[in-house]
Amino acid sequence: MVDLFRGYAAKTRGGQLERFDYDPGPLADDDVEIAVQYCGVCHSDLSMVNNEWGMTSYPVIPGHEVVGKIVAVGSGVTTLQVGQRVGLGWFSSSCRDCQPCLSGDQNLCATAGMTIVNRHGGFADRVRCQAMWAFPLPDGLDPSKVGPLFCGGLTVFNPIIQCDVRPTDRVGVIGIGGLGHMALQFLRAWGCEVVAFTSSDSKREEALKLGAHRTLNSRDEVQLASAQGTFNFILNTVNVTLNWDLYINCLSTRGRFHSVGAIAEPVRLSALPIIFGQRSFSGTPLGSPSTATKMLDFCVRHDIAPVVEHFPLSEVNQAMKHLESGQARYRIVLENDLDKS
Fold first, then answer.
1. Do residues 141 and 153 touch, judged by C-beta distance below 8 A?
2. Is residue 36 a contact partner of residue 66, using CB atoms and an 8 Å limit?
């Protein structure tokens, strides 16, 4: 008799998540099977349920911030063992043969497999991935909290590495939410002077507790104008249109504005402030396995963890509504209770 994987799937665009069991087929030689203990809820899960990016195949089981224990390994896997606790994020495979993969940039692989695109994710009791993308959890990390590190956390940690952010830099973070609250912690521990741009005065004290040295109101153009030329690096974590030229003018010479927020509208920039200040505008997707490992070690060293709220997996629809309403502080983690249902 085939062992079915049990999860919660959306069967139609924007539909409620319903119990859904499926046959995963044979375990590939280079894959591992993970028994899910916890899974973060990311806005990308909501986007996939709603097919906002036009690449959802229904039914779809969301969930790509997985923490669990390995229960099976493929015949070609030598780096992981049954019983290890691991994490899994947005990417679940890469070709390992292209130039990005050979250069250590597996997250830039053109054929990289995504955990919830054309496959089922971690809102389930089991999930599979290529062994390379299952990251062993170091001692000292709370498995009930760290799931969001494997997507949101890696998304904001990767630019620190890729953009050569230095401890002497003054850095601004736009948006103190699911991504931004982790960016503040990382950058403060990195040694930077950290300024939080937030549109909500209610988040000011929270931003300071999370690592910001001070805050600026992102809706106050007078405050932003007073900060012209002062930032070496500005990290944007929101996906809405901003006053781009005003933020570019906040950069120092050779400064960089970097967005990890997936802005849907075209970004319109004036060329002259970029040219004469030798400034730049850039973006990155998540991070490589090597960067993920560095992030985890950094979190242990500096006692960094996402701020999370917990829901049982059986209440996944309530958790998704809580996320969609904007009330989550700051990430949501589901605990697998399928064996109890």
1. no
2. yes
Residues 75 and 190 grouped into a single domain? no
Amino acid at 162: Q
**Residue 71 domain-assigned?**
yes
Domain extent at residue 169: 164-283
Domain tally for the chain?
A: 2
Contact predicate 106/130, CB 8 Å? no
Q: Are 304 and 329 in contact (CB under 8 A)?
A: no
Q: Are 65 and 148 in contact (CB under 8 A)?
A: yes
Do both 172 and 260 map to the same domain? yes
**Distance (Å, whole) CA 273 – CA 198:** 24
Tens of pLDDT, residue by residue over 198-247, are: 887 778 899 999 999 999 998 888 888 899 999 999 999 999 999 999 99
Residues 91 and 192 in one domain: no
22-37: pLDDT as tens digits: 999 999 999 999 999 9
8 Å CB contact between 221 and 243: yes
State whether 254 and 310 are in the same domain. Answer: no
Rounded CA-CA distance 259/238 in Å is 8
pTM beyond 0.85: the answer is yes
Signed CA dihedral, 71, 77, 31, 308: sign only: positive
Whether 79 and 124 share a structural domain: yes
Query: Do 22 and 106 fall into the same domain?
Result: yes
Distance, in Å, from the CA atom of 196 to the CA atom of 180, rounded to the nearest integer, reads 9
Structure tokens at 221: 């153009």
Closest CA to 220 of 190, 200, 194: 200
Contacts of 87 (CB under 8 A, 6+ apart): 65, 66, 67, 134, 135, 137, 146, 147, 149, 150, 296
Question: How long, in residues, is the chain?
Answer: 341
- Is residue 158 one of the residues assigned to a domain? no
